[in-house]
Design goal:
The chain is α/β, with parallel strands linked by helices and 562 residues long. It folds into three domains: 81 residues, Arginyl tRNA synthetase N-terminal domain (Gyrase A, domain 2, 2-Layer Sandwich); 209 residues, HUPs (Rossmann fold, 3-Layer(aba) Sandwich), CATH 3.40.50.620; 173 residues, Isoleucyl-tRNA Synthetase, Domain 1 (Orthogonal Bundle), CATH 1.10.730.10. 55% of the residues lie in helices and 10% in strands. The strands form four sheets. Strands 5-4-9-10 form a four-stranded parallel β-sheet, with helices on both faces. A three-stranded antiparallel β-sheet has the order 1-3-2, covered by helices on one side. The two termini are 37 Å apart. The protein binds arginine (ARG). Arginine binds next to helix 13.
Amino acid sequence: MNHKTLVAERLAALIPSLETEQILALLEKPKSSEMGDLAFPAFSLAKLERKAPQAIASDIAEKIDTSGFEKVVATGPYINFFLDKAAISHDILKSVITEKADYGQQDLGHGRNVTFDMSSPNIAKPFSVGHLRSTVIADALGHIYSKLGYNSIRINHLGDWGKQFGMLIVAYKLWGDRDVIEANPIDELLKLYVRINAEADENPDLDEQARQWFKKLEDGDQEAWDLWQWFRDESLVEFNRIYDKLDVSFDYFHGEAFYNDKMDEGIQILEDKNLLKESKGAQIVNLEKYDLPPALIKKSDGATLYITRDMATAMYRQRTFDFAKNIYVVGQEQSHHFKQLKAVLKEMGFDWSDDMVHVSFGLVTKNKKKLSTRKGNIIRLEPTLDEAEARALTQIEAKNPDLENKEAVAHSVGVGAVKFYDLKSDRDNGYDFDLEAMVSFEGETGPYVQYAYARIQSILRKADFVAKSDADYRLSDAESWEIIKLLQEFPNMVERAADKYDPSIIAKYAINLAQAFNKYYAHTRILDENPERDSRLALAYATGIVLKEALRLLGVDAPEKM
Ligand code: ARG
């Protein structure tokens, strides 16, 4: 239980005229810690009880149950509560030391499934920073939901279908070279795609050919199908290299094509419910009552759309996974699409559409300017991740030249830095992609937190410390108290991050905890001979456990040495 609730409940037992909730709202934090940790002003009771607030305060202070508190005293009209820091630190250290990485684990989900629609790059197109954001945010949310007892299912909804494949096939047959593509799939396929689009502007016949090839593909023509499969495989080789670097894996690669044969059912339901209206030859669903423009379900030539596939996708997921939540981690620019999708499903009578959540995120800039392929302001992910590792390695070599496994540590630090920087910003705010700031060991960065963890491990090694769950560790000084309070908050933070679908809550928490520890370390000589030495080491040990666990929830490693 948190301290505020404890105080409120103790007070409520003596104040029949107020509810615990009302008391909670009245509690104040005293201006100085000499006045205790929490204070209750008795003014509010004076009128009700027709007594002077001073008298009420001293009366309550006398009668209240003080277990768990160092003392409870009346100061004028206030009742001041001094928490028993020693006892609380004892309890928290014991919990963390006993539960270790399970500290904060809960069973709110009872094993129910939560699906994450994540990453989802488009075949034959570059993997963008938006796809990176989707990948790392969803991966972190997956860990966070698992920590709360849900079963997280990671699904890559690859963009692997559409008219562009007709274009690609035509381009490949005109100008493509298999070996060249296999050496560098995305770049080469993109070149073909750009070229065919440019030439089709001049030569409409190319468009017509592309249309025919896409039709063949849809009809299952062998040649078209083999080419499509090959484009997809080659693109995936490249995407998988990025996923390996990021240490992210998926339970399913169910792309858009997976739903080719699963759209009829949804369309049938729309028809049966009389929801499909014709508009200029196309089929639409009116969404006026949701304050949304109509959703276009089928084009006049019968072709299905992005949203038609997403309808089938949601129905498939509901049926296959019976999800508690179906979460889509996709950029803000698609928020309109997901609103329409939910509204259409709701119209179809699917109340589970209430459990679909679009977790959106903001744009990334570079040198404070919008990314633009045309203007050459682009971020190429693979070389950027390599560069992050190289920069991490340089810093490690300067700080700790004898470190073993330098490359592996540099990988954890470099990639962790990019992820952490992405995750620490509030989702809906974008950020400027600044590799130097990301990989810095100073400031609010992943390496800063990792370094705090590694420093703790080095202290523990020097002391040869073995934490015991039945030892009587306790601390009551102000510096350790800051850490104890943070350790106590961790389970709550995990819950809040899940409720708000926002890993930045955990990232900020990790920074606060690392900073609190570094402050403590600067102030207290942990390793010196002292009656509190073991308790101080236990505090360091528990901090290490929670730091490592917070990083794990973000998908970031915590090297033992750095
Ligand atoms: N492939 C899309 C893109 O790159 C993202 C897909 C998001 N997921 C979905 N179920 N619509 O923009």
